[in-house]
Amino acid sequence: MRVVIAGGHGQIALRLTKLLSGDGHEVVGLVRNPDHSADIAAAGGQAAVLDLEQSDAAAVAEVLAGADVAIFSAGAGPGSGNARKDTVDRGAAALFADAAQQAGVRRHIQVGSMGADQAPSLTDDETFTVYLRAKWAAEEDLRARDLDWTVLRPGSLTNDPGTGNVLLADKTGRGRISRGDVALVLAGLCDTPASIGRTLELIAGDTPVNEALESL
């Protein structure tokens, strides 16, 4: 299986790359900073240097050509301003989906955000509101496409060691989840047809990841 991950240097993406490559899969991580290539290689993947904010769909489609799965795990990050919340969390997600369609990559997994469907009106935390709205717009864009899509909304992310036990459902309620366990679920979703066309929430729980995926 060939998997292309947008946001390939992210903490979840690097964990996912290590998992997939360890199982014998080919993993390509899209990054805009060439200095990040070594970290992707160390995780067992191959870097493709490409800035989703500056590229067009045709250039991204070239990287996606021949892939079995496209995973969007990019984000502007907590230190970015409102403008990049839109250009990355919404715009880059839409561009990646455009490219997947051009390249004929049907399986598409997008990492969303818990609470995106309840994006509030502007409050004193304007940046977080803009972020949630961008994530919601990206989800809505993906749901309208002719792709075998899944949206995964993790809870509050932690760097705690993964337990391998989760709660994965259409609705879970608020909670926390380790980045390692998110990576485990993403790896499993690559080959879980029952997740196609669904928006799933993920928090820590008591069910082993393989059982959680099998019960979808």
From TrEMBL:
Start and end residues of each NAD(P)-binding domain: 7-193
Short name of one Pfam family: NAD_binding_10
InterPro entries documented for this protein: NAD(P)-bd_dom, NAD(P)-bd_dom_sf
SUPFAM superfamilies from the UniProt entry: NAD(P)-binding Rossmann-fold domains
Superkingdom of the organism of origin: Bacteria
Matching PANTHER family: FLAVIN REDUCTASE-RELATED (PTHR15020), UPF0659 PROTEIN YMR090W (PTHR15020:SF50)
Protein known as: NADH-flavin reductase
Organism listed in the record: Kribbella rubisoli
